Amino acid sequence: MQQTHSFPRRRRYKLPAHEQQDTLLPFVSYLPERSYPHYWQMPAPNDDFAANVAYGRECAGHLLQWLKDNQPYAGGGLLSRIARDIDFDDIDGRGYWIGFFNLLEHALLLSALHLKVFPYVDHYHRTHEGRIWRRQSEERFGRKH
Q1: Integer CA distances (angstroms), 25 to 11, 42, 142, in order
Q2: What is the dihedral of CA 44, 78, 60, 14, to 10 degrees?
Q3: What is the DSSP letter of 9?
Q4: C-alpha dihedral over 18, 8, 51, 80, to 10 degrees?
Q5: What are phi and psi of 42, to 5 degrees?
Q6: How many angstroms separate the CA atoms of 27 and 83, rounded?
Q7: CB 37, CB 19: distance < 8 Å
Q8: Are 62 and 26 in contact (CB under 8 A)?
Q9: Residue 32 half-sphere exposure toward CB, CA atoms < 13 A
Q10: Helices (H) and strands (E) in the chain, counts
Q11: Judging by beta carbons within 10 Å of its beta carbon (0-12, 13-18, 19+), is residue 4 exposed, middle or buried?
Q12: Among 144, 128, 64, which residue's Cα sits nearest to residue 100?
């Protein structure tokens, strides 16, 4: 496959401050008209669909590395912010999101192969319910220091 886009530099994302770590992802940036980051900034697509797909896969790899390096923040809505900002009607840019989500599907499969999926989901439900209960208790009785 001939590269028509140069891939973003591969890196680690573990830093002491979380506030701006997600903006280090190569496809996240601030736009002048927004007060918060835009989570899907890709280069202008070109006529090489396969290269656009490969670039999307590479960006998915960056997201996976970010999650690996920032495990406490998994489940914090980063993927939903990315999906919110993708223009799925942009036919020329579809190779980017196809490659991105296809690689994530394969990574999910690799993870699922090592899980008892529904017991994990049940555990996640209980954990989430416990967090809600704790937050409600802290609001009701005041947070202890």
Answers
A1: 9, 11, 37
A2: 110
A3: P
A4: 10
A5: -110, 155
A6: 12
A7: no
A8: yes
A9: 0
A10: 4, 0
A11: middle
A12: 64
Q: Write down the pTM of the prediction.
A: 0.80
Note the pLDDT tens digit of each residue in 75-94. Answer: 889 999 999 999 999 999 99
Determine the residue type at 57: R
**What is the number of alpha carbons within 13 Å of residue 49 lying toward its C-beta?**
5
pLDDT tens-digit map of 99-134: 999 999 999 999 999 999 999 999 988 988 887 888
- Residue 5 CB contacts under 8 Å (≥ 6 apart), including other chains: 43, 46, 51, 52, 54, 55
What are the structure tokens assigned to 123, written together? 């555990």
Residues in the chain: 145
- Can you give the residue ranges of every domain in the chain? 1-114, 116-145
The residues, ordered by sequence, that sit 6+ positions from 92 with a Cβ below 8 Å of its Cβ are 45
Alpha-carbon gap, residue 45 to 93, rounded angstroms = 6
Backbone φ and ψ of 98, nearest 5°: -65, -50
Terminus-to-terminus CA distance in the chain, angstroms? 58
